[in-house]
Amino acid sequence: MAKEQEGALSRYHVLDLTNSKGAYCTKLLADLGADVIKIERPDGDPGRSIPPFAGDTPHTEKSLYFLHRNANKRGITLNLNTAEGRNILKKLVKTADVLVENSPPDYMAGLGLDYSVLSELNPGLIMASITEFGQSGPYKEHKGSNLVDFALSGTMITSGYPGKEPCLLPGSPAYDSASVHASISIVAAIYMRRTTGQGQYIDTSVHVTSRIGLYPWIVPNYSYALNPGAPPPTPENRMGASVYPVYPCKDGFIRVIALTPRQWDALMRVLGNPEVLQTEEWRSLIYRIGNADDLYALMLEYTEKYTRLELFEAGSREGVPIAPIMSIEDFYNSPQTKARDYFIDVEHPVAGKADYPGPPYKWTETPAVMKRPAPCLGEHNEEVYCQEMGLSKDNLAALRGGGVL
Which residue range is the domain that position 389 belongs to? Predict the structure, then answer.
């Protein structure tokens, strides 16, 4: 792992009450240097049971999902269903900059821990709540999931082959999209607090942010179409195969985005200007969509002459987006991935040593770094409660025995 460096958020302290729904939000803040304390219930975050597991052995410390989304954080246990647990959280809030939670609407209020209460203790506190459908509105009390939110966002209708069932993207795209939006809002709120001195409350709906984060270009289309006098929005369907086609090549597959006449001309240069595709009508996107099956059959003769890398490099040179479709192994061994040192060697005391995905960006002055693996359950209880809050080890044992930790 890299040595500890000053990050963009190194001076800030974050309390993390999230589970798998919002864990990536606080992971992004931790990567930027924030001191993130993950607060789990005594029996642990349910995310610890999400497969796959290191070594294919189910274990609370070996969930790859959990290990990735909670790296760079410290971890403590705390039972907020006890009065003493809530008092301890309030003490932690007094010195915190940010608190992130993803419990159902009104849950925190039911515990006496909503923003109106916590901001009295710390007026500069920034609190972000991530819920399925937001803190208000007709769907407020509805239950959801990554699958439900992804589907209801409208994104799923574009995913999959025409005439077949829709597809869910791997992982948790809806939850991670909400986490990204919440983290951006938190950083903006931190910046604003430097001017106003005041914190603020951030309400993040997975349903809304998954739409914006995963399929953003359709949102302004709907907005424009709903203006007075404008035509109604056109129905969405699965046009990926005709607009963004995937073609086989010598060693796999590539995806091509040739929408404009300029991009089409560039694609023709990449393929050696095949005579059969030189007629003027092929330069029209509408014509290509209407004749997608014929175009696919014609293109195979030319794309299969080249490797993915040859087509990718030629596309970059000529000016048409051509992307190689990679397996996980391909991506791991990609020269670009290696050149950017994307994967970082991390050793976890239980899960062992592995290469972890690094931060998705490179900053020069305040680099995002990997400082520590995901915490074991309650790993930093003594460090936080005794060394930082001043409790004795006897106090700690009593709290543990009383079901508070």
Answer: 13-214+340-401
Beta-carbon contacts of 237 under 8 Å, excluding residues fewer than 6 positions away, are 157, 158, 162
Give pLDDT, residue 2.
47
| Whole-number Å distance between alpha carbons of 256 and 247 | 8
CB 129 within 8 A of CB 101: yes
Residue 2 within a domain = no
Tell me what pLDDT residue 221 has: 58
pLDDT in tens, 213-223: 777 665 555 56
Q: For residues 93 and 119, what is the distance between their CA atoms, to the nearest angstrom?
A: 9
Residue 56 has pLDDT above 90, yes or no: yes
- Output phi, psi for 188, to 5 deg: -65, -40
Q: What are the pLDDT digits (tens) for 328-337?
A: 999 999 998 9
Residue 316 lies in a domain: yes
**333 located within any domain:** no
Please tell me the pTM assigned to this model.
0.89
Whether 146 and 289 share a structural domain: no
Same-domain pairing of 313 and 350:
no
Measuring CA to CA, which residue among 315, 324, 359, 316 is closest to residue 340? 359
Helix (H), strand (E), coil (C) string for the chain: CCCCCCCCCCCCEEEEECCCCCHHHHHHHHHCCCEEEEEECCCCCHHHHCCCEHHHCCCCCCEHHHHHHCCCCEEEECCCCCHHHHHHHHHHHHCCCEEEECCCCCHHHHCCCCHHHHHHHCCCCEEEEEECCCCCCCCCCCCCCHHHHHHHCCHHHHCCCCCCCCCCCCCCHHHHHHHHHHHHHHHHHHHHHHHHCCCCEEEEEHHHHHHHHHCCCHHHHHHHHCCCCCCCCCCCCCCHHHHCCEEEECCEEEEECCCCHHHHHHHHHHCCCCHHHCCHHHHCHHHHHHCHHHHHHHHHHHHCCCCHHHHHHHHHHHCCCEEEECCHHHHHHCHHHHHCCCEEEEEECCCEEEEEECCCCCCCCCCCCCCCCCCCCCCCHHHHHHHHCCCCHHHHHHHHHCCCC
Classify residue 220: in a domain, yes or no: no
| CATH number of the domain where residue 253 is located | 3.30.1540.10
Written as six digits, the tokens of 287 are 């014509």
